[in-house]
Amino acid sequence: MSTLLKGVRFSERTVATGIGIWDEMAADLKKEWEEAVAEIEGHIAAAPWGQGAEGVRFHEALMRGGGPMRMIRAGRQIIEQIEAMGPTMRVTISNSVAADQAEAERIKKLLEA
């Protein structure tokens, strides 16, 4: 019967370590992404295609549908979601532990009755 009351257990140290690693990865990813974006924007600003008719057509084709800027915006949104996962997981696990504790208390009272 004691196993029934044990409920779900999280190793706080394991969870904290895992989320910490996730946060580090997210920070590294964001840094690398911003470096890549700066490089892409630099290439676009340099306009190596020139101002001639062919260059203008190339630039128009490159920017059609949002071009690289669309990819940059989408990438930033994805990275924001990745960054938010660490804090989200902390809240989720905290809520799970609180719910488990409340349920364990409810079951304990039922068994004592």
List keywords for this structure.
0% strand, rod-shaped, mainly alpha, 113 residues
**Any idea what the radius of gyration is?**
25 Å
Q: What share of the residues lie within helices?
A: over 70%
Shape: rod-shaped
Overall pLDDT level: 90
Count, helices: 4
Biggest sheet descriptor: none
* Strand portion: under 5%
Low-confidence residue ranges: none
Number of E-type strands = 0
Order of helices and strands: HHHH
**Structural class assignment:** mainly alpha
What separation lies between the terminal Cα atoms?
15 Å
Account of the 3D structure:
With 113 residues, this protein is an all-alpha fold. The protein has a domain at 12-85. Helices cover 86% and strands 0% of the residues. Helix 2 packs antiparallel against helix 4. It is rod-shaped and about 85 Å long. The mean pLDDT is 90.
In short:
By secondary structure, the protein is mostly helical. Helix content is 86%, strand content 0%. The two termini are 15 Å apart.
Topology:
Layout: H1 2-6, H2 12-46, H3 53-63, H4 67-112
Helix pairs in contact: 2-4
